[in-house]
Amino acid sequence: MGQMIFVNLPTADLATADKFYEALGFAKNPAFSDENATSWIIDENIFVMSLQQEFFASFLVNGDKPAIGSGHREALNALSSDTREGVDDFVTRAQAGGGSVYRPADEPFPGMYQAAVQDPDGHVWEISWMSPEALQSMEAPSN
């Protein structure tokens, strides 16, 4: 089994967070979901764990506290899309699930199309698509 990633995010309201992640099309993993947390499968080895604020805090040390809606950003969670249209669809689904546009869709570089949304707790999810030509031009030359 390859490595897996679990993005753990605090939430002020688990039901509201669940609505958002369900709208994005992520699959709920009931085996790791209860009244304190919901596990969402993004891909085979990628998961987001939405944790009630108090439960999230139980994993912190050194006086650290959850920073929901603080306006400070420590991370931008970034996902890829298979198509340019998938970026726009992701934004539409995020808004339907109670999220908002954090950064409107744009093309900052030729062949790269991206946008970012904010979940109801203020966590930012970037979504981007790169054309095959743009990806090919980024590949490192082989030695």
Automatic annotation (TrEMBL):
Protein keywords: Lyase
GO molecular function: lyase activity
Domain of life: Bacteria
InterPro entries from the UniProt entry: Glyas_Bleomycin-R_OHBP_Dase, Glyas_Fos-R_dOase_dom, VOC_core
PROSITE patterns from the UniProt entry: VOC
Stretches assigned to the VOC domain: 3-130
Full protein name: Lactoylglutathione lyase
Organism taxonomic ancestry: Bacteria, Bacillati, Actinomycetota, Actinomycetes, Micrococcales
